[in-house]
Design brief:
- The protein is about 50% helix and about 15% strand.
- It has about 325 residues and is α/β, with parallel strands linked by helices.
- It folds into three domains: about 160 residues, 60s Ribosomal Protein L30, Chain: A (2-Layer Sandwich); about 90 residues, Serine Threonine Protein Phosphatase 5, Tetratricopeptide repeat, CATH 1.25.40; about 60 residues, no CATH class.
- A four-stranded mixed beta sheet has the order 1-4-2-3. Strands 5-8-7-6 form a four-stranded mixed beta sheet, with helices on one face.
- Helix 9 runs parallel beside helix 11.
- The longest helix has 23 residues.
- The N terminus and C terminus are likely disordered.
Length: about 325
């Protein structure tokens, strides 16, 4: 059976699977097996490995992404990133972990190769496609992986068609909106209930599920480590999730103040500014310092600004901040 025959069978099966996301993903996986991508350095794919339960890349594995430099996406090819896990633990959590691994690698590819995120498609398979059926420590290590392959544009268009065909997505979005509104009214139990319903429909694969969970935790006494986990996961799934980035920055501001790394004595001169990742973080520091911001001072320096504040003793104090490049000042 030749490659062309495989492609024709793929197109026929794809038509039958239209509207069925699960069937489509199975067919996509079959296509990648039957019609392998252009080899990278003599192999069918680039494979990155992970520690148990982890989705962050080690330095060694991160360097492998540089091998993709000569195979950057172009008018003929796109990148497909597939995440996997071993069979230890809950299968549902392993599926989520495999998706996080794929998204982590995608984000690294986009950053290192400076390519458009839409040119990188991600899939998570969980523990369903092991490298080897044998149950051993060494085999499980092989299954904790992400595979990067290249796909032709014609097949990519088929992938792109199915990327947004989650039949539950409208209801999931509705539940996210409902949870947002409930949280704004301090109806924490209601918000958690909405998120639980969304999770039952597959909502955990979306960034908003994690950011809303973290925001609920921020106001209800959740531990910092757990909140950070929610916000970081949200950012991995959607690097543009502003809420997740803002609340993560607020958490870090509180920790730096509590640990004594940032005190009211910092930021008092232009030579000793307080660095902020998101500019609303400055308000958190000022609140922790016990001062009331009065007026924003724009400085000639591109990434610096200052706040004139009133102390409890009604004295005027100026604090200098250095913002992240490209961030907007939020007053």
């Amino acid at each position: 059976m030749n490659r062309l025959h495989h492609i024709n069978r793929f197109e026929l099966l794809s038509k039958r699977a239209r509207g069925n996301l699960k069937a489509a993903l199975v067919i996509i996986a079959a296509y990648l097996f039957l019609c392998p991508a252009i080899p990278a350095k003599g192999t069918d794919k680039i494979v990155l490995y992970f520690d148990p339960g982890e989705y962050h890349l080690s330095r060694t594995e991160r360097h492998k992404i540089l091998d993709l430099g000569k195979y950057q996406p172009n008018e003929k090819w796109r990148l497909v990133v597939e995440g996997y896990s071993d069979d230890q633990g809950d299968p549902k959590k392993n599926l989520e972990l495999s998706r996080l691994r794929a998204m982590e690698v995608k984000n690294e590819i986009v950053a290192v190769l400076e390519i458009d995120p839409v040119d990188v498609f991600t899939l998570g398979h969980g523990e369903t496609l092991p490298e080897d059926g044998k149950d051993s420590t060494s085999v499980r290590a092989l299954n904790r992986r992400v595979e990067i392959t290249l796909l032709s544009v014609s097949s990519w268009q088929m992938l792109d068609k199915y990327q947004s065909t989650d039949p539950n997505l409208p209801e999931i979005d509705h539940l996210f909106d409902k949870a947002d509104q409930q949280a704004k009214k301090d109806d924490w139990a209601g918000a958690r209930g909405s998120l639980e319903k969304a999770a039952g429909l597959g909502g955990k694969q979306y960034s908003r599920w994690h950011s809303i969970q973290g925001i609920i935790g921020f106001y209800t006494g959740m531990g910092p480590a757990k909140m950070k986990s929610f916000f970081r996961t949200a950012i991995i799934l959607d690097p543009d999730n502003v809420n997740a980035r803002e609340y993560l920055a607020r958490l870090e501001a509180g920790e730096k103040f509590a640990n004594g790394n940032i005190t009211p004595h910092h930021g008092r001169t232009i030579d000793d500014p307080i660095r902020v990742d998101i500019n609303s973080q400055a308000h958190d520091y000022l609140r922790l310092f016990g001062v009331q911001p009065q007026s924003l001072i724009q400085l000639d320096h591109l990434y610096m600004y200052a706040w004139d504040c009133k102390s409890p003793e009604n004295e005027t104090t100026r604090y200098y901040f250095k913002k992240a490049a490209g961030a907007e000042v939020l007053d």
